[in-house]
Amino acid sequence: MNEPNKEQFDIDMNRKTAQAPFGSSLLTGFRGVSRNLFIVLVFLLMSLPLFTTFNEILTKIVEKTGLYTFLTQNVVPFETRAVSLILRPFGIEAKPTVSHLFIERPDGSTTGIFFSWNCLGWQSAILLLLTFVTGLSGNFPISRKLEVILLGLSGTFLINLLRISVVTMIAYYFGQLVATIAHDYGGTLFTIAWFFFYWWFSYKFILEGE
């Protein structure tokens, strides 16, 4: 068996071994969060019908618990009133109740939008907590991390109100069927877009800003 000469040995030493797609170190910071959000977006788009069905099943399960009663009596009425106030500058008069928002459409018909605990945006709250794991993993000051957390919590809450308001406006102009489609499909894209903007803003102006 021939022994390798010096030239062959140098080539072998300098040759880079192939790495698996996930063999590199985990991405952190905005790139890590963006990659994770993109993976979540692809997964949701592929399984959106199944996700919607599972969401409905989970809603029925939670409705039988005490948590459903608490959210219905304390949080849902606040959201119906808040959305009615958001719609008022757009010339849409909505009458809030403890669980519905009734709007009179331009054709004279009345559309009732039902608010359940599921409209509170618990999915986006869970996703926000998951992005904190990657987004705040860097060596940043505690004060800036707290700013990012407060911005994320308050911003996600307001974005959910805006999302519900947009769906209500769609119901006002195009009817309940179109609003239901926008709620089930467009809401997911709207939420993911917010998270991309939120983490870009956080790294640009808070975490890595001067």
Automatic annotation (TrEMBL):
- Topology class, membrane: Multi-pass membrane protein
Q: Which InterPro entries does this one have?
A: Exo/Archaeosortase_dom, Exosortase
Keywords, alphabetical:
Cell membrane, Hydrolase, Membrane, Protease, Transmembrane, Transmembrane helix
Return the GO cellular component terms, semicolon-separated: plasma membrane
Regions that span the bilayer: 37-54, 114-136, 148-175, 181-201
Q: Is Transmembrane helix one of the keywords UniProt gives this record?
A: yes
| A Gene Ontology biological process term | proteolysis
Q: Does the keyword Hydrolase apply?
A: yes
Give the molecular function GO annotations: peptidase activity
- Predominant localisation class: membrane
An example Pfam family from this entry, by short name, is Exosortase_EpsH
State where the protein is found. Answer: Cell membrane
Spell out the protein name for this chain: Exosortase/archaeosortase family protein
Q: Which NCBIfam families match?
A: exo_archaeo
